[in-house]
Write a structure and sequence with these properties.
The chain is of the alpha+beta class. It contains 11 helices and 14 strands. The strands form 4 sheets. Strands 4-5-10-6-7 form a 5-stranded antiparallel beta sheet. The termini are far apart.
Length: about 270
């Protein structure tokens, strides 16, 4: 690990000031990816600005037809929340399946979203529910937020403060996990809400993506059977030691049907 300067921010404004003054500063949320990268000398920020003491960045609340979750809320807190379990049980199920117990008790929603790992679970939930990322400067639709592998729409000095999830009529999330890391080899989030049906896939490509053909089929009939004839093109999918692009394409179809069944309570 290279030398760096550590700062513990006392407020959102203080974090923004400290981040802006750093030569190459990084925000520290749960640190489950950043600290590991620094230990391996794959990342060498000049400064770390710790958001852990900022109470306003934590918490879960129902706001009309939306569920708003603070950026520093841990995966474990999301999984255990009565509001999340009651309003969007698929989101609680997703959070409960992230990593191991240590990761869930330290890792945060905002940290995962900002990192945008191509195999992370939360991006599928954001895109699959049509969520909005909230920063101290603006609101960004999830469809516009995730730009590519580890790339987002966040600008320099921009800090995620929370995510607003529209409460759907029904939703489901199923993943085929890597047995060691629990990251998704393929994960599919399906929802039906006031704006229609959404299908989001993580783990299969360079970044989370929607599947319009599946959304069209489910809009006509929200059932697993409706997806049996919908194929996924493997040409743009990831292929690695864990699964070929063709196998991932097959998994997307299988996992999507299971997610629909979960959404239907079966």
């Amino acid at each position: 690990m290279y030398t760096f300067t550590y700062h513990k921010a006392s407020s959102l404004a203080d974090a923004a000031t400290k981040l802006g003054a750093a030569a190459d500063g990084k925000l520290l949320a749960g640190g489950q990816t950043l600290i590991a990268a620094m230990k391996l000398r794959l990342a060498a920020p000049s400064d770390l600005v710790d958001l852990g003491a900022i109470a306003e960045l934590r918490g879960i609340k129902v706001d009309g037809g939306n569920l708003v979750i603070g950026a520093m809320t841990t995966h474990a807190a999301v999984a255990a929340s009565a509001d999340v379990r009651g309003k969007i049980p698929a989101l609680a199920h997703l959070a409960e399946g992230i990593g191991d117990r240590m990761v869930r008790n330290v890792g945060t929603l905002g940290g995962s979203v900002a990192n945008n790992d191509p195999a992370a679970d939360y991006p599928a939930a954001l895109v699959g529910l049509g969520a909005t990322v909230i920063t101290q400067k603006r609101r960004i639709a999830a469809d516009d937020f995730f730009r590519g592998m580890y790339e987002t729409a966040l600008e320099a000095g921009e800090i995620i403060t929370g995510v607003s999830f529209p409460i759907p009529k029904r939703a489901g999330y199923v993943k085929f996990p890597n047995p060691a890391s629990r990251y998704a080899i393929v994960g599919v989030f399906v929802s039906e809400g006031s704006t229609g049906v959404r299908v989001a896939v993580t783990g299969a490509g360079p970044s989370v993506f929607r599947v319009p053909s599946m959304e069209k089929a489910l809009s006509a009939s929200f059932s697993a059977e409706a997806l049996k004839s919908v194929a996924v093109d493997a040409s743009a999918l990831n292929g690695d030691m864990h699964a070929s692009a063709e196998y991932r394409a097959h998994l997307v179809s299988v996992i999507a049907r299971r997610a629909v069944e979960q959404a239907l309570g079966r």
